[in-house]
Design the sequence.
């Protein structure tokens, strides 16, 4: 991991990352990923920045280039990544397991983490950087270098996050007439609450100008007098050093939020309510306008009356038709306007001012999603026990539990773990059979690959109370015998974790796949979420990098789904202005977004729509070059329901 980071930083420093979709030739890995995927790791570390589609080093990245030491990278990560230094502080104090450190972090910092993955990742990096070491009983402790470096870091203690209850409410300014009229209409007009928008939100927020509300005020102020569209968007791009194509997606939001109106073709001006906000200068007036025009604004404050995890707020937003990203934007507006405060890194609470404001706003009640209403009418689904975990959750939890408890479920040693391994592969569509007899393999797994050829793997399950599988737990002679007996091409050993170079070297020499219970659980979850076939998942048996290749496939499939959602969202947005868009249009508009899809990816998505259901999108103008063919959204919601009905029928037949 460390040599790879250094090599990437050197290459970016040499201006080699000019094409985000290119795969660099790297000496530290056998198979490289695209610059775009590497940026997902390097940007959170603060080492690189995306400047108009080109990766460039930040000052912190240049620091690492000048001092290519593990301690330098560790210090940069401690400054940038929350709870990185604090985890090391726990291990300086006393040796801990991942589970012990995770439990203390959750309790001390009021976190809503539901797994140990965040803590495990931080502890893995600390080990990679030479700051921790393994002791007995699965515990880690800080090394001498770790203790020395930690003494130079600034950390955030739980007591530093203690906040006064809510403080006294700031006086709320009188509502301007123009804005009061919007709120009155919302309160007295039937259907007005449901008519509020759920558009995507985007406002410039560069590092040097991070305040989103202030930046939006600057944009609207430019249109206080009538202004042509190109001039307005050009001003925003120049003011915030953005590409013009990145700014195009802002116009629909400003209109949907009731801040901008089109007075004649291609000419815009601030709405009367927006001009009243500019005159008052009050962030609260901005929130009032937003509430009158968009869903889950004042309701968000109500959802955070008590100290709540952000995830609870995100879930509440879903009941109003908003996704997680939109709720994040609204939460940021509330924090900037002083209506919410962060009580921890993962929780928020309404301020006294926020609570006073929502007393003056007409609020809506959440709506049950359509799927939930349909469930009430389904007698087959109504038979399930409330609160009963689904099969996927049960498999994933049981894999992790039985991996470190050989006598789990009151069965003979190791039996429960083998049973759940068998269930995991069957859930993913493999033929799996637990054998576990003397002189034979534990589980036999078979599937057909992409060419229709039958593949066979034997799986050896190792459940240990120590949480570590070493070479002493594995007999290579026995495994070779089992492999020959079953004419298997692949061998996998599955356990809670693997310790020592001996077993890893043996696995490399023998071409065995070493898979942890956590990793298998993640694969099962990804296969369920993404619809992966056994032909896809089967690559996890390919030693030595099958899991890595499978992770790359999972990333690719998830990106394809994210792009699909983005295209639907963009077509829906443009439909409000009756504009038809092409793959090239979407590529330019979304170039500055986190996904930044290529034209090729967008064309593949549009072809997928054609294969799935012609009603999802409609072709408006078909031209010779498919990049310029234009589309509008069709009856996408109905098409989605038809596809779900087909999927349900297939599953009933199984």
Sequence:
């Amino acid at each position: 991991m460390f040599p790879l980071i250094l090599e990437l930083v050197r290459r970016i420093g040499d201006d080699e990352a000019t094409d985000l979709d290119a795969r660099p030739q790297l000496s530290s890995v056998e198979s490289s990923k695209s610059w775009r995927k590497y940026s997902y790791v390097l940007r959170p570390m603060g080492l690189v920045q995306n400047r108009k589609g080109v990766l460039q080093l930040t000052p912190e990245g240049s620091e690492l280039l000048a001092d290519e030491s593990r301690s330098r990278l560790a210090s940069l990560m401690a400054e940038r990544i929350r709870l990185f230094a604090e985890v090391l502080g726990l291990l300086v104090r006393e040796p801990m397991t991942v589970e012990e450190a995770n439990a203390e972090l959750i309790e001390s910092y009021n976190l809503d983490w539901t797994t140990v993955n965040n803590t495990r990742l931080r502890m893995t990096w600390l080990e990679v950087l030479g700051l921790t070491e393994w002791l007995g009983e699965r515990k880690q402790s800080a090394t001498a270098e770790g203790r020395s470096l930690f003494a130079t870091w600034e950390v955030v203690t739980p007591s530093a996050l203690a906040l006064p209850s809510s403080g006294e409410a700031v006086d709320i300014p009188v509502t301007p007439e123009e804005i009061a009229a919007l709120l009155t209409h919302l309160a007295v007009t039937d259907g007005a609450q449901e008519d509020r928008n759920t558009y995507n939100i985007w406002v410039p927020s560069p590092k040097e100008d991070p305040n989103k509300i202030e930046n939006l005020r600057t944009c609207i102020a430019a249109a206080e007098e009538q202004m042509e569209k190109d001039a307005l968007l050009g001003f925003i791009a120049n003011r915030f050093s953005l590409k013009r194509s990145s700014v195009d997606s802002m116009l629909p939001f400003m209109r949907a939020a009731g801040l901008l109106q089109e007075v004649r073709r291609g000419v815009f001006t601030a709405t009367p309510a927006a001009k009243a906000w500019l005159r008052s200068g009050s962030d609260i007036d901005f929130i009032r306008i937003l509430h009158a025009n968009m869903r889950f604004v004042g309701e968000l404050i109500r959802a955070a009356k008590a100290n709540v995890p952000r995830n609870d707020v995100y879930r509440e937003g879903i009941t109003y038709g908003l996704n997680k990203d939109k709720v994040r934007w609204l939460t940021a507006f509330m924090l900037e306007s002083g209506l919410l405060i962060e009580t921890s890194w993962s929780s928020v609470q309404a301020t006294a001012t926020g609570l006073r404001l929502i007393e003056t706003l007409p609020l809506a009640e959440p709506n049950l999603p359509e799927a939930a209403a349909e469930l009430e009418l389904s007698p087959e689904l109504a038979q399930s026990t409330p609160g009963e975990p689904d099969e996927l959750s049960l498999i994933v939890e049981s894999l992790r539990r039985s991996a470190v408890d050989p006598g789990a479920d009151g069965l003979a040693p190791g039996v429960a773990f083998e049973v759940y391994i068998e269930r995991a592969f069957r859930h993913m569509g493999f033929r799996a059979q637990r054998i576990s007899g003397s002189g034979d393999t534990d589980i036999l797994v078979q599937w057909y690959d992409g060419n229709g050829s039958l593949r066979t793997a034997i799986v050896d399950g190792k459940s240990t109370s120590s949480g570590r599988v070493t070479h002493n737990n594995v007999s290579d002679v026995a495994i070779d015998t089992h492999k020959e007996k079953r004419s298997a091409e692949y061998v996998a050993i599955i356990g809670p974790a693997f310790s020592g170079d001996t077993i890893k070297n043996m696995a490399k020499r023998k071409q065995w796949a070493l898979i942890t219970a956590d990793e298998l659980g993640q694969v099962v979850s990804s296969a369920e979420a993404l619809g992966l076939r056994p032909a896809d998942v089967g690559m996890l048996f390919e030693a030595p990098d099958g899991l890595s290749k499978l992770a790359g496939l999972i990333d690719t499939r998830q990106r394809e789904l994210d792009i699909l959602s983005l295209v639907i969202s963009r077509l829906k947005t443009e439909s409000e202005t009756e504009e038809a868009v092409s793959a090239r249009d979407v590529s330019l508009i979304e170039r500055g977004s986190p996904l930044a899809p290529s034209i090729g990816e967008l064309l593949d998505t549009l072809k997928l729509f054609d294969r799935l259901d012609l009603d999802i999108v409609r072709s408006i103008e078909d031209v010779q070059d498919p990049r310029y063919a234009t589309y509008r959204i069709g009856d996408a919601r109905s098409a989605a329901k038809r596809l779900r009905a087909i999927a349900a029928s297939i599953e009933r037949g199984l």
